[in-house]
Amino acid sequence: MASEPGNERLAIDEVAKAVAGLDLDGPRLERLKTAVGEATMNAIEHGNHNRPELPVEIRVVTDDTDLKVRITDQGGERPIPEVETPDLEAKLAGLQTPRGWGLFLIQEMVDDLRTAVDEHHHTIELVMHLKEAPDARS
Amino acid sequence: MPGAEFGAEVRQHGSTGVIDLHGEINLGADQALLAAYESAVQGNPGTVVLNFAHVDYINSTGIALIVGLLARARKEHRTVRAFGLSEHYRQIFAITRLSDFMGIYPDEDSAVTATAAAS
Question: What is d(CA A36, CA A10) in angstroms, rounded to the nearest whole number?
Answer without folding.
Answer: 10
